[in-house]
Amino acid sequence: SDLKLMEDFNANDILFRASSNGHLMVEPRSKSEVLADGVKTHLVDLFITAKYGRREDIISKFLEKGNRSEEDSITLLSRVTGKLFTKNEERLFNDYVTAVPDLFIGESIENANETFDTKTSWSIFTFFRSKQKKNPLYYWQGVTAMWLTGAKKHTVAYCLVNSPADIIVSEKRRLSYQFGMLDEFGNGTDLFHKKCAQIERNHIFDYELFCKHNPNFEFDTYPNERNFTIPIKERVHTVVYERNEADILRLQERIIDCRKWINENLI
Fold it and tell me: Are residues 167 and 61 in contact, defined by beta-carbon separation less than 8 angstroms?
């Protein structure tokens, strides 16, 4: 029964997901501590989900675009690299971790030469900001993928693709709530339409493809100003991580410490 499963729960059975393993690797401020306070908070959430099936899902507009535009990003990466990628759906796991790497090159996902994760940027601004510094969460996601697949390297591919039309409309609607954006009759002011045109420019990067997918979209941008398209090679940038056996071992040891902490403090 479910009650018996709860009573028999042991944190040693928890498999840690690649997407959140970076949270485990934050170092404590004091050398006397094994785990940082933030890591312990994360473990509380993992424990609740693993034992009781409860989850606090935070669905942001950034994640929504990422999920909905994933195939567009994979297609863009294929066009830029000249390699035909298809989305991997197979979940991998060992005694410690689990992951579903987005893409791979090699014999199979279980025996890959290189793994990939695509990251769909929210806008042109977040795309270029991602070039500033490497994201440690994505690094440990890659470490997990390489651990599970045997890959020698892991590539994070940041992709800039069109936002879905309804997301653009939603951004315009959010703008309309601001004071002074609508006139006394509820119609958009000139300033409102100018800002809506800017929203379109910030979220459309392949005009022809956008029109193909959304033939009835009502633009605020004048026809002679719809020079939205950016060359595909300027809309992908990659960060490559090499396999590091020492970091794989560090992750394994940290998971052992995390499981021990859960068993001693939460069960």
Answer: yes
Report, as an integer, the average pLDDT of 208-219: 97
Phi first, then psi: what are they for 120, rounded to 5°?
A: -85, 120
Measured in whole angstroms, the distance separating CA 187 from the mean position of its chain's CA atoms is 37
**In the predicted model, what is the mean pLDDT of residues 22-47?**
94
Q: Left, alpha or beta for 82 (phi > 0: left; psi -120 to 50: alpha)? A: left
Q: What is the DSSP string of 116-133?
A: EEEEE-SSHHHHHHTTSS
- At residue 31, the pLDDT reads 86
Which residues, in sequence order, are CB contacts of 143 under 8 Å at separation 6+? 21, 154, 241, 244, 247, 248, 251
Check residue 246 and give left, alpha or beta (phi > 0: left; psi -120 to 50: alpha). Answer: alpha
How many other β-carbons are positioned within 10 Å of the β-carbon of residue 36? 17
d(CA 23, CA 38) in angstroms, rounded, equals: 8
- Give 120's strand partners: 159
Residue 201: other Cβ atoms inside 10 A: 17
192 or 130: whose pLDDT is higher?
130
Looking at residue 181, what is its pLDDT? 67
Cα-Cα end-to-end distance for the chain? 18
Asked if 160 contacts 230 with a C-beta cutoff of 8 angstroms, the reply is yes
This prediction has a pTM of 0.89
Determine the pLDDT at residue 170: 93
